[in-house]
C-alpha cells in the first residue's frame, strides 16, 4: 500500500514568505498524479517535501499510512528523478543504478537481477558499462529512471524530468514514462510546468498557483469543467480566450453582449445556472478550438461572430487566427482550407455549448 | 554590374581578414617574447645552481672564469651528499613531516569543506570566510606565539612539532580550495544520494571525494609544496641536525661560519627541489583544473 496523503501542508521561508499555503491532497495507491503550475506556484517545493528534501513548516505528510514528517529521505522508501538527471559522473550506468541497492546491502545477485531487468525495460542494456558523460540527454534520463525503478520504491517522484530535453525527445520520453508506469504500476507524483505533459500522463492533474491547489481532477474534467479562470487559462493550448461581456436577460432567455456589439445566445440548458448574474459584467471564456469556421455542434444555438484577423498562423493540420475584441486577444482554430487573410473580416461560429462564464469578482467559473 | 560591385568588394574583405591575421601574428609574437623573458628570469637561478653543482670547488672559487660554463664537470658534490648519513636523515625527516602534514591537512580540509559547503548550519558562511581570513595571516607573525604553544607541548626541536604547526599554513587554503570545488558540484547529486540511502559520510566518501578528485589533488599538491619547502618554522623550532628537514639541514650543515660549501649547497638544494618538480610534472593538469573549478558556471 503506497497511498500518499498531504494534510494542511505549509512551507514558509524566512520573512514569512509562504511557498505552499496549507494544501490537502490524497493520492491513491498506483495512481499517477501530476502537479502542474507556473514557476513559483509551489509544485516543486511540495514534491521536495514529500521526498524529505525540504522541511515541512506545518501539516502532515503520510506515505503508506505512516506520517513521514520526521523520517529522513532514505527511510521514506521513495525514488526521485531530477530535472538535470543527477547521475553520479564517476560511476558507470550499472553502478549508478546499483548504488541505492548497494547502500542498502542487497545481495550482489539480487542487485544484478534488478539492474538488468530495469535496463531491459528501459532499453539501455548496451549502455550499462558507459559513464554518464558518454550518454545523450535522453539516455541519461532513462538511466535516472532506471535508478528509480531498481529500488522498487513505494512512490516515484519526478521533478520536471523532461525539461532539459528537446521537443522531439520530450514527446518520446513522455511515452516511455507512461509505458514504465503501466509496467511497474508504482504510485507516481510528477511535477511539470508543461500542461501537455500533465494532460497526457496523469490519472489526475493537480493545478497549483501561488501555493494553493486551484483544482484536482482527471485531465478531461479539468479541460471541460475548469473551476477557476486560472485553470481554464492554464489547461489547453493555445490558451482559452477571455472576453469581457455582459449577461442580459430578455423574456427568459440569456444573451452575452460582447464589447464590439456582437450578441451570443446562451444555450437553454445553461440559463438557470447563469440567471443570477443577468445584468452583470462577466468574462466570456471560449477555447480557440470552440471558435471555428466549422458548423456549430449545438444546432439550436448557432452563434455567429464576424472578426477581422490581425495575424494568421498556418500550422498545417489547422490554421490559427488571432483577433482583438476591445483590447482582449482572441484566437480561433480554423480549417486549413479556410481562405483567411489578415485584415479581411471572417465569419466564425462560437460553440456555445462549450463556453464558460467567469465571475470577474472572484475568478470562479460559474 | 553586380559582378563588378562584387569584385570590387572582395579585396576589401580580404584586406580586413589580412589585418586580423596580422593582429593575431603580433599578439602571438608578443606572447612568445614575454613568455621567453619570463622563462629566462625564472629558470636562470636553478640553471645556475645546476651548473655550480657540477663544478669543482676550485672552479667555483675562481672568479676569473665564465660562470655559465663548466670546465671540469664533477659529481663529487652529489656523491658527498648522498654518502653522508645526515643528509639521508634530513630527507627522511622531510618525507615524514610532509607525509603526515599532507594526510592531516587533507582529512581536516575535506571534512571541513564538505561541512561548510554542504551542511547548512547556523554561521557556516561566516565560518567559511573566517577560514580564508586565517590564511591571510603571515607565518612570520605566527611563529612567535606558535613557538610558545609548541614549547608548552614539549615538541620543540622535534619533527612532530612541525607536523603540528604546518597545518596552520596548509589547512585554511586547502579548505578554501575544497569549499570552492564542493560548491561547484550540483546540489541534486547529494539529494540523489540522500534518497538512494546514503548518510553524510557515505555521500562524502562515495560521491564527493571521487567527483572532487581534481580539487583534492590540487589541495594535496599545495599542502605538499608548503610543507616540503617550509623554512621559517623549522629554522625557529628545530635546533639539532637529527630533527632537521632538508630545507634547513642543507643550509645548517653546509654553511660553517663564513665558509659556504657552494657545490654541495647547490647539489643538496636541487635534490631537495626534485620531489615537488616530479609531482608537478605528473599532476599539473589536475592542479590547474582544481584551482579553476567553480570559476565559471557549468
Fold and architecture overview:
- The complex is a heterodimer of chains A (about 375) and B (about 300).
- Chain A is elongated and about 80 Å long.
- In chain A, the strands form five sheets. A six-stranded mixed beta sheet of chain A has the order 6-7-8-3-9-10, with helices on both faces. Chain A has a six-stranded antiparallel beta sheet with strand order 13-12-11-14-21-22. A four-stranded antiparallel beta sheet of chain A has the order 2-1-4-5, covered by helices on one side.
- In chain A, α4 packs parallel to α5.
- Chain A has helices spanning about 45-50, 95-105, 110-120, 135-150, 165-185, 195-200, 220-225, 230-235, 270-275, and strands at about 5-15, 15-25, 30-35, 60-65, 65, 80, 155-160, 185-190, 205-210, 210-215, 240-250, 255, 265, 280-285, 290, 305, 310-315, 320-325, 330-335, 345-350, 355-360, 365.
- Chain A starts with a strand and ends with a strand.
- With about 375 residues, chain A is α+β, with helices and mostly antiparallel strands.
- Chain A folds into two domains: about 5-225, 3-Layer(aba) Sandwich (Rossmann fold), CATH 3.40.50.300; about 240-365, OB fold (Dihydrolipoamide Acetyltransferase, E2P).
- Chain A has nine helices and 22 strands.
- In chain A, β17 (about 310-315) and β18 form a beta hairpin.
- Chain B folds into two domains: about 1-55; about 85-290, MetI-like fold, CATH 1.10.3720.
- Chain B has helices spanning about 1-55, 55-60, 75-85, 85-120, 125-135, 140-150, 160-165, 165-185, 185-195, 200-210, 215-230, 230-235, 245-255, 260-290; strands at about 255, 260.
- A two-stranded antiparallel sheet of chain B has the order 1-2.
- At the A-B interface, β6 and α2 of A face α9 and α10 of B.
In short:
The complex is a heterodimer of chains A (366) and B (298). Chain A has 366 residues and is of the alpha+beta class. Chain A has nine helices and 22 strands.
